[in-house]
Predict the 3D structure of the following.
Amino acid sequence: MVARKTVAIIGAGPSGTVAAALLRKNNHDVVIFEKQYFPRFSIGESLLCSCLEDLDNAGLLGVIEQANFQVKTGAAFQHNNRYATFNFAENFTDGKDSTYQVERAKFDKLLADEVARLGVDLCFGEQVEDIRFENGVELTLRKADGQQYQFHADFVLDASGYGRVLPRLLDLEVPSTLVTRRAVFTHITDYFSDKAFDREKILITTHASNPEIWFWTIPFAEGRSSIGVVVPESLYVDSQLDSDIFLQTMINETPSLSSLVEDSEWDTPINTLAGYSANVKTLHGEYFALLGNAAEFLDPVFSSGVTIAMHSATLAAELLHQQFSGHDIDWENEYSEKLKIGINCFRTYVENWYNQRFQDVVYYQDPDPHIKAMICSILAGYAWDKNNPFVSDSENKLNLLADICQAS
Ligand code: FAD
């Protein structure tokens, strides 16, 4: 018989709730400590197809399917007069052919409510401030009224996202190798009148004259959209502009996007985040594992964040249950190395997006459909499918393809 264990999870974002649901399914006692109260705003709104498989596996897909989120069937890319689309139905990998674009306030609350219904103890307004390891884990919590208390668990999963609680407390942080970038973003009532605009696709627009700058347009249901720009931090700082003026200036410099949003109502405050890419020395220890953004975050360009978060949660929760069942787990091989297959694959495409080699692949006019399907699979989140040569040998294959596209 499997011993019933207590797992503490820090954070109720997608990695926290997916891990909680899986552990609860295996009858463990699960407590989530979440410092905020839900619903709350969070960024990360365009999902990939593979997220739905992780939600399904955790028993959480039903609530999401019933929520009337905007269906997403692929990705569109625009740079001046260059335009390309990727349809998830044409994936190389045998998987889902659509997903959703979600307001995270609503999405995260639905998942949190569902895990609470499954028996997970959800403590909102409680912030993890310290940790000690002794016969398991002792967490120090601070409640919203300032009161402190200790909580003992057999294991802790850090799903604290940008809070990066354990990387900070245990000195695990290492700088990201990616350039520091800033995102400036908001929600709009979009009033998009362009009949050719496809609400079922995220639109990635490259800035008219600076291909290092890109915008996302993520349509939601009911006429609203998320819109944002990503720029090198130095460009934002040197501009000395307020974030709202900065976003408008970048859009105005990019005619295809400024004409799309010409009737939009800018009814929500502008938000900004910088230096979000992060890395760590290790993803696990005797009594802990890091999930999602607390483990590593690359870049928003291919909407890989929630996918990696849910994949890490699925891997870690399953390994932890095996460990509680008496199996010896090699966390380095079974968790870190497995998770890094997808992270490293996405990293290759992110780096080649910013050096523009992947942009030339994306906009290539006459692609081989079989190769396009393999690239499409990665954009759909199937970055762990080793049958796809653009996953198993991502760097070499992408280099070769980019050389061909640039030469023609
Ligand atoms: P989070 O969703 O960040 O959840 C962490 C939770 O932990 C929060 O609720 C927080 O309140 C809580 N917490 C933090 N500290 C503590 C503490 N001390 N005690 C208790 N609770 C705590 N990803 C996509 O998939 N698609 C996108 O379109 C996309 N766009 C993005 C755009 C930008 C500009 C950026 C920066 C990122 C984007 N991402 C996107 C990435 C996405 O935001 C994250 O990868 C994803 O939210 C990670 O989920 P998570 O569960 O790890 O953490």
